[in-house]
Amino acid sequence: MDIATVIGLLSGIALLATAMSMGSGGITSFVDIPSILVVIGGTTAATLVMFPLQAVLTSFSILMKGFIHKAEVPAEKIDQLIELALVVRKEGVLALEKKKIDDPFLARGVRLLVDGIDQNTIRAMLDTEVSSLQDRHSDGAQIFEQIGTLAPAFGMIGTLIGLVQMLQSLSDPSSIGPSMAVALITTLYGALIANLLALPFAKKLSIRSKEETVIKELVIEGVISMAKKENPNLMKAKLNAFLAPRLQVE
What we know:
By secondary structure, the chain is an all-alpha fold. It has 8 helices and no strands. The protein has helices spanning about 5-20, 35-50, 55-65, 75-90, 105-115, 120-165, 175-225, 230-240. Helix 2 packs antiparallel against helix 6, helix 4 runs antiparallel to helix 8 (about 230-240) and helix 6 (about 120-165) packs antiparallel against helix 7 (about 175-225). The radius of gyration is 26 Å and the shape is elongated.
């Protein structure tokens, strides 16, 4: 589980709830069902108009990466690749068949290597898989970015609806204050959805995509290095080049 995401989200909600509850009307004064319907309903409807249904549904499954994600350590992946390279140097490529590999992407690369596929084809096939992964993650991040744009817009639409309703009841001065408060709540809802949920999650998904891409690029270079039967020390130097100095394998 990504503890930073959980802490950030829960602390943000807790602080906002505390600030709201300290007002004269309490936290219940910030709850308005029509405003929720306008912001959430309008944002959802517009998102479905902009994107295919399957893409929207997939984006919410990708969203779980923001909560449940076990990031792979690049140094550990390099150590694993060097271990496999040593096996290739000592026993040959076919000896890799006996190795249990939990990483599906690495396992596919090793399988192609064992099957005698040439290194250019291996690189092309694995690169295609990485590109497909990046496209899926990019689509998910784009959907949340659009939600971050749409929610404040529908918050303003809700405010305009509230102002129209308020102006229609100017004959009753006592209703102006409560009506104005309700009108502004929709803007608040839109801003909260955009800045506490949608935009942070879009950024988080982009970061996760970059992290996964780096790991997969390490795997590709490692598999190609094994195909070339390069010295493991040379492989290590090549793979370390992908990482910041403090993350490199000694």
